[in-house]
Write a structure and sequence with these properties.
It is a single chain. Strand 5, helix 4 and strand 6 (147-153) form a beta-alpha-beta unit. The longest helix has 16 residues, at 226-241. By secondary structure, the protein is of the alpha/beta class. It starts with 11 loop residues before the first helix and ends in an 18-residue tail after the last helix. Helix 3 (104-117) crosses helix 4, helix 5 (160-167) crosses helix 6 and helix 5 packs antiparallel against helix 8 (226-241). It has 10 helices and 8 strands. The chain has a single domain, classed as Alpha/Beta hydrolase fold, catalytic domain (Rossmann fold, 3-Layer(aba) Sandwich).
Length: 294
């Protein structure tokens, strides 16, 4: 998830510095078109819908604490040739907080309902960063026939928090301190509920959509050791959870790949579409899971 990245036990000064850095990230401005409103029952949600092109709609799901603006560097690269849709989950950006549970299954079902309410028809190519990758995984398990593929950017593994406490307890201490001192209420709700429903998801079937995982090529000095080793093992384990075609290492040590390596992320998304949604200019034929549906 987007907030837990340090290795050493927490000290008050370090917590204050990290909290300030987190606030800076969450408050970053972005040069994107204004959002529009979509209603899901009594819930008002902010959506952003841009771009044109054949093939599936790219649906972007942000990480813990992030609004749609986390995709500001990536969206212009994608909207030149794809339909792109993203939104602010309840409690982030321009979307007011909701009273519904914040587990991955609820978030995935809300996303599905929001897409329907917004008139965005499948198929979808799901892109998820950090805990947003976990939410997209839940969506693909719940609605596999509507998903053309997944592109997971350093996704939060279902066992991340349990394994973190066991294998990197110093980092777990820091995460608990950040949860208490720097997380908003909705961030705490999402963090606390991250594994609540995962054992009730449908099993991975033979028609599971293809997936690729993007990760940084190295970890920052403060993250090296038990934390880095644990996270790397869990990324490899995604091959058990999804129909993983490969793991791509992107240059640098930044968890926010969509910001630090937007061209590489866009290229990976283009490659996924090209492999699984082939279209010849002037023809309507494409892969079955990528054909538009009424």
């Amino acid at each position: 998830m987007s907030a837990a990245r340090m290795k050493h036990p927490a000290r008050p000064a370090r917590i204050r510095v990290l909290a300030a850095g987190l606030a800076l990230l969450l408050g970053a401005c972005a040069s994107l078109p204004p959002t529009q409103t979509v209603q899901l029952g009594g819930q008002r949600l902010a959506q952003l819908r841009v771009g044109q092109g054949p093939g599936p709609t790219l649906v972007l799901q942000s990480g813990l604490g992030d609004s749609h603006t986390t995709w500001a560097e990536l969206i212009p690269l994608l909207s030149e040739r794809h339909r792109v849709w993203t939104y602010d989950r309840p409690g982030y950006g321009d979307s007011p907080r909701a009273s519904a549970p914040r587990d991955a299954c609820t978030v995935a079902r809300e996303l599905h309902g929001t897409l329907q309410a917004a008139g965005v028809r499948p198929p979808y190519l799901l892109v998820g960063h950090s805990i947003g990758g976990l939410y997209q995984h839940a969506f693909a398990r719940l609605y596999p026939q509507e998903v053309a593929g997944l592109v997971l950017l350093e996704p939060t593994h279902p066992e991340h928090w349990a394994r973190l406490q066991q294998e990197a307890p110093g980092t777990a201490v820091l995460v608990r301190a950040l949860r208490s001192s720097a997380f908003s209420g909705v961030m705490r709700d999402e963090f606390d509920a991250q594994t609540d429903c995962l054992d009730r998801l449908p099993p991975r079937g033979p028609d599971a959509p293809p997936a690729v995982l993007l990760r940084r090529s190295r970890f920052a000095l403060a993250e090296q050791g038990a934390f880095a080793e644990m996270v790397a093992r869990l990324w490899q384990d995604w091959g058990r959870l999804v129909a993983l075609e490969g793991i791509e290492h992107l240059p640098g040590d930044d968890h926010y790949l969509q910001r630090s390596q937007p061209k590489r992320v866009a290229a990976a998304i283009d490659a996924m579409v090209a492999r699984h949604c082939p279209r010849v200019v002037g023809e309507e034929a494409g892969a079955a899971r990528c054909e538009g549906r009424d």
